[in-house]
Amino acid sequence: MSAKVFIDSNVFFYTFSDKEPLKHTIAKALVLGGRHTISVQVINEVSSNLLKKLRQSNADVQDFVDDCYSRYLIENLSQAIFSKGVSLRERYKFSYYDSIIVSSALLSGCQVLYSEDMQ
């Protein structure tokens, strides 16, 4: 049985930009590689970047959101995630948003978190 995987927003962002071809190729393989887990936060961050940085249309963003809900397991934000995020922030000095991503991955039972952050 393979490990349950959580994908962070920055990985998704590379699938929309080919400015860094190697990262683009790897990111595409990851996001298309199975029924992975993401969070509502990931959808929000990617959607915001698609609109602001890549100047995608509202329809393109809606297509992305619809695709996420059909392709991935979506972890909703909860009080438990925020509480775990606080303890992760205190212990590991993660940023606020990174601590929520890690908390979401942990509480959804993922063994692997793909992210460009938290190195």
Automatic annotation (TrEMBL):
<dbReference type="Pfam" id="PF01850">
    <property type="entry name" value="PIN"/>
</dbReference>
<feature type="domain" description="PIN">
    <location>
        <begin position="5"/>
        <end position="117"/>
    </location>
</feature>
<protein>
    <submittedName>
        <fullName>Twitching motility protein PilT</fullName>
    </submittedName>
</protein>
<dbReference type="InterPro" id="IPR002716">
    <property type="entry name" value="PIN_dom"/>
</dbReference>
<dbReference type="InterPro" id="IPR029060">
    <property type="entry name" value="PIN-like_dom_sf"/>
</dbReference>
